[in-house]
């Protein structure tokens, strides 16, 4: 019998990188839109750090965009900021310019 020194490469695992990161290592800020009745809609912001003052951020957002809003406590998601209207891109730009979140940590959802 002949001995051959051949190394067979291991199968490529596409999820190998995902497993190496700890769960929750990449925390994203999710900006979503919810359709209400007719043309009315809500913009929701979730995933901000817990040590931020949500009330102060909400106050600045309301003043900047001339809209109404509130902070809602959710069992699963924690605190969520709700704003009237479609403010997704404006909120993303505001959070980046204020230095609260990096641009690559924001995910905008919606139509």
UniProtKB/TrEMBL annotation:
It comes from the Eukaryota. Residues 29-99 form the SUI1 domain. The keyword Protein biosynthesis applies. InterPro entries: SUI1 (IPR001950), SUI1_dom_sf (IPR036877), SUI1_euk (IPR005874). Gene3D superfamilies: SUI1-like domain. Belongs to the SUI1 family. One of its GO terms (biological process) is regulation of translation. Probably involved in translation. Keywords: Protein biosynthesis, Translation regulation. PANTHER family: EUKARYOTIC TRANSLATION INITIATION FACTOR SUI1. This is SUI1 domain-containing protein. The gene is LOC110723843. The keyword Signal does not apply. Coiled coil: none annotated. One of its GO terms (molecular function) is translation initiation factor activity.
